[in-house]
């Protein structure tokens, strides 16, 4: 069955379907019950599943993640909501020192099927700590899987797949695109959880990104097309692990690549992707792989965010530069 | 807050109106069980001492002794029921052994061959040691939330209802996770006993730096039932913990027990207590040793020298066996680096594992 759904509703439906299929799936987070979450992603789920399946927790991120770990030890499959990207850090130790390592410490005898949902990224004009892109911290940490859908169909299926995974998943949600609609086909998933895909085919330059940035890349590709430049857009979908094959295939065709992200560029996912492409595609490269990132400065006040965050113009500037080689 | 004591430091019984209800629980223990308490303490101390020696001989990278804390650990260990779950920190060697962890499995952590050591499904729900101070307070609380959601507590049947024991110390009590554990335990009314061994020192920092009130007083403010006990008095620790655990399991009321004890050894073999505390202080606590106290108690109840000596003999044999194991134990395979990072295969890790094998093979000889 296919229906048009905004990303927020697709996520909601995925959690609803997962909870219906498995009564060990529980939701945890701040304000996710009667309010339905500050973005309404869990809207209606407490009313339908009750307060033992949808937990309005005390206001403590470490407490949420830490108790989710304990619930996983007990056989539950917790899905935790972190209210905003910049609020995940109080739970950082529980994620990177505990959750990420516990499968390894148990030598695989105990699964840790914990999903941590993090609405991330800018473009919503919010105050400090509400627009960050912390996925690089988690992608760097061994033992975590980090995914970031950009479409409604991926939002639905990647959430279903994340909840079914026996490993911890950091699930980055493109909050600026929560209300962007797309076709959701609930009959079967289009891709495995960690596959990267060609979002738009092209010939001359490969544009790589994840989450809301994919929308910027598609916009840039459309503008470039008007100027006679054909760009291929790759949606990474997963930043740990990264499925490099579609990117490598694309780069072998185009010889030129721009990696874009909302996070600051230093030691970022874009850095890792660029380095790996250099190792794997050295003889195919016609130009250095360029990164387009936020600046290496804290996320600025919202009146400056459109300057801080890469937009289509900055992506196109990089496209011009790789084409100049 | 009153600190419950049933045996004075010299082993004589302390009976009063105040501790009468605790004596009622302790008096129900038969002599065999009391001798069993002594056995757990003496054997663990012998193993512990042996492990310290092995570290000094370069066979262990580090050792964290539990010297002096055996009384409270044996008391709570005996108070636990088979269906209970233990979340230890990294110094509950006695309690871990009581749940079925072999001491060799603990040794494996400290000789650097594993970060885990055992499978909790095979050790009567003794979860793994936890090294980041206080973090497991939340894991234990979450686990206890699961017990509640499963409706495996609160029926009133002590032989069926499950409970969780979470162990940490005075240092951990300052960690945010420890407080968040109390908050969540209270919010979700979990069947939990927080077993807090106030051993007076967090490495070199005295417990007075962590709290100017007793830790139990602090827990009361969180809404938990809280009590203090002489943690070097195994009978008192048992009696109080037994009642609190059964209160937790049957009524879903989280409990907090502060055990007044002393870390007689170093924090770990890397520590040097002479830099921060006095010999006099250590000697004063040696006079309150939990093992000597229990020996005196058993003698007063008619235990023979032979019975007490047999425990010492058992301890010597156990220590010798652990020494033998440690001297001959091998190293883990390099596959351990890669094989359990995720529950499912990971292409990148598989490639790295293969690359390592090729690299090793490039030196010739057996790969």
From TrEMBL, chain A:
Entries under Pfam families matching the protein: Transket_pyr, Transketolase_C
E.C. numbers: 1.2.4.1
The keyword Oxidoreductase belongs to this UniProt entry's keyword annotation: yes
Family annotation (CDD domains): TPP_PYR_E1-PDHc-beta_like
A Gene Ontology molecular function term of the record: magnesium ion binding
Listed name of the protein: Pyruvate dehydrogenase E1 component beta subunit
Enzyme class: oxidoreductase
Residue span, Transketolase-like pyrimidine-binding domain: 5-180
Organism listed in the record: Agrococcus casei LMG 22410
Co-factor(s): thiamine diphosphate
This protein's record includes keyword Oxidoreductase: yes
Record keywords: Oxidoreductase, Pyruvate, Thiamine pyrophosphate
Database matches in InterPro entries: THDP-binding, Transketo_C/PFOR_II, Transketolase-like_Pyr-bd, Transketolase_C
Domain of life: Bacteria
Automatic annotation (TrEMBL), chain B:
Domain of life assignment: Bacteria
Pfam family, one: E1_dh
Transmembrane segments: none
A molecular function (GO) term: magnesium ion binding
Gene3D superfamilies per the UniProt record, alphabetical: 3.40.50.970
Catalytic activity: N(6)-[(R)-lipoyl]-L-lysyl-[protein] + 3-methyl-2-oxobutanoate + H(+) = N(6)-[(R)-S(8)-2-methylpropanoyldihydrolipoyl]-L-lysyl-[protein] + CO2
Role of this protein: The branched-chain alpha-keto dehydrogenase complex catalyzes the overall conversion of alpha-keto acids to acyl-CoA and CO(2). It contains multiple copies of three enzymatic components: branched-chain alpha-keto acid decarboxylase (E1), lipoamide acyltransferase (E2) and lipoamide dehydrogenase (E3).
Entry protein name: 2-oxoisovalerate dehydrogenase subunit alpha
């Amino acid at each position: 069955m296919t229906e048009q759904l905004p990303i927020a509703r697709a996520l909601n439906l995925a959690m609803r379907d997962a909870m219906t299929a498995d009564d060990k799936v529980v939701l945890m987070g701040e304000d996710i019950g009667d309010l339905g979450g500050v973005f309404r992603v869990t809207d209606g789920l407490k009313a339908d599943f009750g307060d033992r399946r949808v937990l309005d927790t005390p206001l403590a991120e470490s407490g949420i993640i830490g108790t989710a770990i304990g619930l996983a030890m007990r056989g539950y499959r917790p899905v935790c909501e972190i209210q905003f990207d910049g609020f995940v850090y109080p739970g950082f130790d529980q994620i990177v020192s505990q959750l990420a390592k516990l499968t390894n410490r148990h030598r695989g005898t105990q699964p840790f099927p914990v999903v941590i949902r993090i609405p991330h990224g800018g473009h919503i004009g919010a105050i400090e700590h509400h627009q960050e892109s912390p996925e690089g911290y988690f992608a760097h940490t061994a033992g975590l899987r980090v995914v970031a859908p950009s479409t409604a169909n991926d939002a639905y299926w990647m959430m279903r797949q994340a909840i079914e995974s026996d490993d911890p998943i950091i699930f980055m949600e493109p909050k600026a695109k929560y209300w962007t609609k797309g076709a959701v086909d609930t009959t079967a998933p289009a891709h495995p959880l960690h596959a990267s895909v060609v979002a738009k085919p092209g010939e001359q330059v490969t544009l790589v990104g994840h989450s809301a940035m994919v929308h910027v890349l598609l916009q840039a590709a459309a503008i470039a097309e008007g100027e006679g430049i054909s760009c291929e857009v790759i949606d990474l979908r997963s930043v740990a692990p990264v499925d490099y094959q579609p990117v490598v295939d694309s780069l072998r065709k185009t010889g030129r690549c721009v990696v874009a992200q909302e996070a600051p560029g230093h030691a970022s996912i874009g850095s890792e992707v660029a380095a790996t492409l250099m190792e794997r595609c050295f003889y195919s490269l016609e130009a250095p792989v360029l990164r387009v990132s936020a600046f290496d400065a804290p996320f600025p006040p919202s009146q400056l965010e459109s300057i801080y965050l890469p937009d289509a113009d900055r992506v196109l500037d990089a496209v011009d530069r790789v084409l100049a080689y | 807050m009153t600190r419950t004591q049933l045996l004075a430091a010299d082993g004589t019984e302390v009976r009063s109106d105040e501790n009468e209800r605790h004596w009622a629980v302790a008096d129900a223990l038969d002599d065999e069980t009391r001798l069993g308490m002594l056995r757990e303490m003496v054997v663990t101390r012998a193993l512990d001492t042996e492990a310290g020696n092995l570290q000094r001989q370069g066979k262990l990278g580090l050792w964290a002794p539990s010297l002096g804390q055996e009384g409270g650990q044996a008391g709570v260990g005996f108070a636990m029921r088979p269906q209970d779950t233990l979340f230890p920190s990294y110094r509950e060697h006695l309690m871990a052994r009581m749940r079925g962890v072999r001491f060799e499995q603990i040794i494996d952590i400290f000789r650097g061959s594993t970060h885990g050591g055992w499978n909790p499904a095979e050790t009567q729900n003794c979860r793994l040691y936890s090294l980041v101070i206080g973090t497991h307070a939340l894991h234990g609380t979450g686990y206890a939330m699961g017990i509640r959601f499963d409706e495996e507590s609160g029926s009133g049947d002590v032989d069926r209802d499950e409970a969780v024991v979470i162990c940490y110390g005075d240092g951990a009590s300052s960690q945010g996770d420890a407080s968040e554990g109390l908050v969540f335990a209270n919010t979700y009314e979990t069947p939990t006993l927080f077993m807090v061994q106030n051993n007076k020192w967090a490495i070199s920092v005295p417990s007075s730096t962590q709290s100017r009130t007793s830790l139990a007083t602090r827990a009361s403010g969180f809404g938990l039932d809280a009590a203090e006990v002489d943690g070097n008095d195994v009978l008192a620790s048992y009696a109080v913990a037994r009642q609190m655990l059964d209160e937790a399991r049957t009524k879903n009321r989280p409990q907090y027990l502060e055990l007044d004890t002393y870390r007689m050894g170093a924090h770990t073999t890397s520590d040097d207590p002479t830099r921060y505390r006095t010999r006099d202080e250590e000697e004063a606590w040696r006079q309150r040793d939990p093992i000597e106290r229990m020996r005196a108690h058993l003698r007063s109840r008619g235990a023979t020298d032979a019975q007490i000596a047999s425990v010492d003999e058992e301890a010597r044999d156990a220590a010798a066996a652990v020494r033998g194991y440690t001297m001959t134990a091998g190293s883990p395979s390099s596959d351990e680096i890669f094989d359990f990072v995720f529950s499912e295969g990971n292409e990148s890790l598989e490639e790295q594992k293969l690359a390592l094998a090729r690299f090793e093979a490039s030196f010739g000889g057996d790969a």
